[in-house]
Design goal:
It is a single chain. The chain has 77 residues and is mainly α. It has one domain (2-38, 52-76). It has helices spanning 2-33, 53-76. The chain is elongated. It starts with a helix and ends with a helix.
């Protein structure tokens, strides 16, 4: 059983080495074709999108209107 396990480990190491060589060749071809790798498709965004003061006021007014309607409906019950 240990011989089989050792043989499988050796095969795994060999396949991992082949995989590394193939990935290196793919990266080289992508570099030559100027194609971005899948992991580096787009730079990560930082921060959040801004909202104008007028937009914040409109949202606040709409929320106050909804709460007023909710309180009115609750009070009438």
């Amino acid at each position: 059983m240990t011989l089989d396990a050792a043989l499988l480990r050796a095969a795994l190491i060999g396949y991992e080495n082949q995989l590394a060589e193939i990935e290196k060749a793919i990266a080289e071809l992508r570099r030559k074709l100027k194609i971005a790798s899948p992991g580096a498709a787009a730079p990560a965004k930082t921060g959040r999108r801004g909202m104008s003061a007028a937009a914040r006021r409109r949202i606040a007014a709409a929320q106050k209107k909804r709460w007023a309607a909710y309180r009115k409906a609750k009070k009438s019950k």
